[in-house]
Design a protein that fits this description.
By secondary structure, this protein is of the alpha/beta class. The protein contains 8 helices and 7 strands, in the order ααβαβββαβαβαααβ.
Length: about 240
């Protein structure tokens, strides 16, 4: 198994090496496993990768460590590639082999523009690696618009020019309901003076272990259609698919 290099920022550390006392430890661990497996399989030296809505670039190391040419795109002009206020990318047509999008789609107001731009910058044999929420709490960054069922996500991507070839569920319903309770409890307990943070961390360890056990015993057929997060791989539809 490939070991990722040491994270360089707080957000990279949190995503790539979540701690047992992090309230979202279980889902972050599952996402990292699914994303790293895909990166290992897809990435090759020189592969042109565009991270559409990169934020702090938490998974960049999984691709650059494998020789990929990674560029992050985001609003505000601080990223490698700028996203204009209208959602358009300052990137040439057919300039990427792989578009990656991690926990962005639920925050996108205009899916048509976002996914049409992803199609535009992909080369004819390009692919998209995308993760988004099936079920989770409302979390505006700065907006939060939707959640998906497995069927709905595949359909939404399919209607916008992508053929989903893989859809990996991360964290089933027994576990993510425990995680929701943990998140709410931790927020409340951290407000307790002096001992709040230590107590919240202790509760998180116990509840994360409980959630991990719950996820282990949840049947795969249940998790498949009731996941907290879905990690998808898509290819561009060709004319005969449309």
């Amino acid at each position: 198994m490939t070991t990722a290099p040491l994270p360089q920022t707080f957000e990279q550390r949190r995503r790539l090496s979540p701690r047992l006392w992090d309230t979202d430890w279980l889902v972050l661990r599952g996402m990292r496993t699914a994303i790293e497996a895909t990166a290992t399989r897809m990435c090759r030296p020189g592969l042109a990768i565009l991270d559409f809505g990169c934020g702090a670039k938490p998974y960049a190391l999984l691709f650059t460590n494998r020789g990929g040419h990674y560029q992050g795109a985001d609003l505000g002009g601080a990223a490698d590639i700028n996203i204009q206020p209208n959602g358009k990318l300052d990137a040439p047509d057919a300039s990427a082999d792989l578009v990656v999008s991690f926990q962005v789609l639920e925050h996108v107001r205009d899916l048509d523009t976002y996914l049409s731009e992803a199609r535009r910058v992909l080369r004819p044999n390009g692919q998209m690696l995308l993760s988004t929420h099936g079920t989770w709490l409302y979390h505006p960054h700065p907006e939060d618009h939707r959640r998906w069922t497995r069927e709905g996500l595949i359909s939404e991507l399919g209607s916008r020019g992508f053929d989903v070839t893989e859809c990996t569920p991360v964290t089933g319903p027994l576990a993510w309901t425990t995680m929701v309770r943990l998140t709410c409890i931790a927020v409340a307990v951290r407000r307790v003076p002096i001992i709040g943070h230590a107590l919240a961390n202790t509760i998180a360890v116990v509840m994360n272990l409980k959630a991990s056990l719950e996820d282990t015993i949840t049947p795969a057929w249940v998790t498949k259609d009731n996941a907290c997060v879905y990690v998808t791989v898509s290819r561009l539809k060709v004319a005969s698919d449309a």
